[in-house]
Amino acid sequence: MNRPSPNLWPFLLPTLPWLACLLSPCAHAVQTRNFVVSNFYPAHYYGDDTCPHGLNPTPDVFFKRDLKLLGVPQAEVNAMFDKDYNNQNAPPTTKWVSVVAARGNGRDSVYLHPTTVPDAQLNLAIGRFAYGFNLDGKGAAAPNSYENPETHERGVDNQLFRVLGCFQVYKGNPAPQPPLEAEYRWHSSRPMMGAWLISVSGEDLTRDGEVTVTFQSSVDPVSTQDANAQIQRDLTYRVADPPSSRNVLHGRIKNGIVTTDPAPITMLCDAYIQPRFEFGDARMRLELKPDGSLEGLLGGYQPWYPIYWSHAKVGYIDERGFGVDVPALYYALRKSADAYPDPKTGENTSISAAYTIQAVPAFITPLNRREDAAVGARSMSNLCATIGLCRRLSAALHRVAEPAAPETPGAPVIARRLTPDQYRAVVIDVFGPTMKIGGRFEPGIRDDGLFAVGYGHVGVTSTGLEQYDAMARVIAALVVSPEHRDTLIPCTPQTRTAPDDACAAQFLAKAGPRLYRRPLTSAELEQAVAIARVTAQSLSNFYSGVEMSLAGMLESPPFLLSCHRNSLNSSNLDETEATFLDGCRSAGPAYPGQRGAADGDGPPQSGGPDAEITAPGIGHTRLLRRYAAI
Amino acid sequence: MLQFDLFDTLAKDAKIYPKWTVQVGLDAQEQTLRTIVDLVLTQQGDYRDLFTTRKTFLTPMLGSIYGVPVAQNVAPWQSYEFPDGDPRAGLLAHASFVALHSHEGLSSPTLRGKALRELLLCEPVPAPPGDVNFAVAQDTHNPNFKTMRDRLSAHRTDPTCAGCHKLMDPMGFALENFDSDAGYRTTENGQPLDTSGELDGIPFVDAAGLGRAMHDNPATGACLVRRVYSYATGRGAARRDMPWIRYLEKGFAEDGYRATELMRRVALSNNLYRVAAPGMPAAQLASLHTPFEESAK
């Protein structure tokens, strides 16, 4: 090997940092911007002169054309066409698809053997403009080259556009909309494959200078969209070491536009599009946009057969769904290939192409680093929990000498309406998650900043009670329904058409305390059983009786309201409960059936034989009237 | 206390804040709850440290909002510590605070300051008059008032507005680095943001400074005492209970502001279970409910 003569070193020295960057992250790069590719599709341009011979025929035309060439009787084709081509949502009634798929010789798949069909001569995009790069360096002298419509660079080599540009689905909607098929393919594959990441590193990306562009794969897919159905920005993507694809390119930035030197680029993709994108003599032109995103072109020479196969493997669906005449595409790609001739046949193996790249800001982290951090955090958490235990022990010792709390005079009992969450939790806890809770809960109010206080002041309006009633009936009906009764009712009545106090009591004694969050008094249980009995007699149905009694419980104050209790020390439950109920009677929220604001029959008033004052603005409370009536 | 029920109706203008989704709103609540549980319960830490801690838990979506790396497909929640010098310190920098207390299309120092006063310091702020003219404050395209500070300064020229805004805005300005979607920004309409402010005479220059001022403010701990008291008893602080509340405040401080100890003191106190005798005369009963008007400080 000849060592460069010493007088060449001043010229070679500036390139050394970039050579180093090829091996490891560039030590000189002080600024890096990372992006995740949000869109990748063949760069398209469509102007008035792009397809002077018109667009390519739609599938209904080229199917019939080829079958006619094959010699299938026109009436037979039309019959199959009408039944299956025009009616795709019903089961096939003919062999239409298999006939079309073998339309070359009536035997072999045209997708595996495209030359069984004569070359239909696709209409090519032969206009003046196309996006891409002057790949061969010949400039405008190159045959079939284009002019870039934006930079007006001449000699743009993009034969893939020439082939695809006159398919309706590659004509694209007006820019910047991507071509339909390419967009569909990318967004179908994007959540299934590792994200494509682009990093641009340089000393100062706000100034002109040299940069390194790293184009690599993540292990994480791009699957999260923002509120506008665009790719979420600033998410984090992990990169394995080594990544499945990694291309490090030398380039430069000028006026916010990054261009890279020609180099091969390979990116693994998804099998649905193409398992692998390979480009020879590839280069990129990327614009760092003011909104933080990145947009530009990737161009190079692609092996043409994988492009063909990406359509052929989908076969009939690609033809019928996207209007791509697959055998004709085969001929066009093969004829338009313009680089890398096969040494034996001399036939070109690659075709010049350009793809649009759109990318949004992202973070890139090495695989596993965050997982390790998470594990470390869990260890710390355990340690901290241990420290916390020590602190509690210390605090317990400290409390030995703690002065007693000053006594307060006590306060009236507060009854709080169940919050919607509490209501659901109680019902589901008692009867299981299959219970349906239809209906709307009355809104709570904040008092002193807290619902916890406000729910002690709100009432149950007549409208609200209707909702509670509806919910209670639905729940009760579900509990006694044939689907649930065997599970939720712990006994079977002697007969379904008559009352059974023992069985009703067994169920109500079990459900009641759990609904009321306290033991039932003997009077309460007797009353509930009595309701079940009377109803069962009236309706000649034991379960209707239980249903009615249960519904009553579910809309009664002891269920809907939660009372603060003083104690349950008394050995005589009924006596204790009476004290408690006295407290609730004087403190609870307004409830329909009471005389007061909740009934809408006037403002709260003080005094009266059935009302006791609780607090200013709370109003009268006789919340147990309805309860007592049950 | 945190008013997370307001998330049910929280919306952001997707044109301005495309990153904000329903999932981000759910994650934002969970982030704060996890941070509280970790510091207050798991680590038995000082409640006031919630306003200065840089440790939190994030999802990838919250990482996107905050502009920090949080790996996807690893674990839904990952512990994260913002580096020293990062403006995101404490609960006040969480999306659950700055995004919840903002408008659909712009931040709001006033709403944030109001929430901070009322929710975390237990200091009620009077409601605005019914005829407020918001024209200047909400015109984000006015070339003369590029930042919210500029617009609110113009708004405060009305003396009827100035009195209350003084209670709220100086604290809210410190959070102006956080946009309505909790994303970080240093400018508004091209104008650099001035995030200096003050809380009860303590000046600061940024959100981290506000967090420290909250940490050191005596009302911060006292407010939590009142909240725990109210959760437990179902009522606002009343005059009859003030000796007990003072006792709880003192004990809270002596316990190093550990909320679990505070809850223990409340839950185990006979005062929680003591009820007024039934049949107490109406006037006497009503007087027991007289709200305690004194500041929590």
SSE arrangement:
The complex is a heterodimer of chains A (630) and B (297).
Chain A: H1 9-12, H2 16-23, E1 31-42, H3 59-70, H4 74-85, H5 96-101, E2 146-147, E3 154-156, H6 159-164, H7 168-171, H8 180-189, E4 196-202, E5 209-217, E6 235-239, E7 246-254, E8 257-260, E9 263-268, E10 276-288, E11 294-303, H9 304-312, H10 316-322, H11 326-336, E12 339-341, E13 348-366, H12 369-399, E14 415-417, H13 420-431, H14 451-454, H15 462-480, H16 485-488, H17 501-516, H18 522-539, H19 542-554, H20 557-560, E15 561-563, H21 573-587, H22 625-629
Parallel strand pairs in A: 6-13
Antiparallel strand pairs in A: 1-4, 1-13, 2-3, 4-5, 5-7, 7-8, 8-10, 9-10, 10-11, 11-13, 12-13, 14-15
Chain B: H1 22-42, E1 55-58, H2 60-66, E2 78-81, H3 95-98, H4 109-120, H5 135-138, H6 148-155, H7 159-172, E3 187-188, E4 191-192, E5 197-199, E6 202-204, H8 207-216, H9 218-233, H10 242-254, H11 259-267, H12 270-273, H13 282-288
Antiparallel strand pairs in B: 1-2, 3-4, 5-6
Helix pairs in contact in B: 4-7, 9-10, 9-11, 10-11
Largest sheet of chain B: 2 strands, antiparallel
Shape of chain A: elongated
List the uncertain runs of chain A.
1-27, 374-390, 566-577, 593-630
Computed Rg of chain A? 39 Å
Helix content of chain B: 40-55%
Oligomerization status of the protein chains: heterodimer
Overall helicity of chain A: 25-40%
Give the end-to-end Cα distance of chain A, rounded to a whole number of Å: 105 Å
Structure summary, number of beta strands of chain B? 6
What proportion strand of chain B? 5-15%
Cα separation of the termini of chain B: 18 Å
Total tally of structural domains of chain B = 2
Instruction: Provide the domain count of chain A.
Output: 3
Beta-strand segment tally of chain A = 15
- What is the N-to-C succession of helices and strands of chain B? HEHEHHHHHEEEEHHHHHH
Overall geometric form of chain B: globular
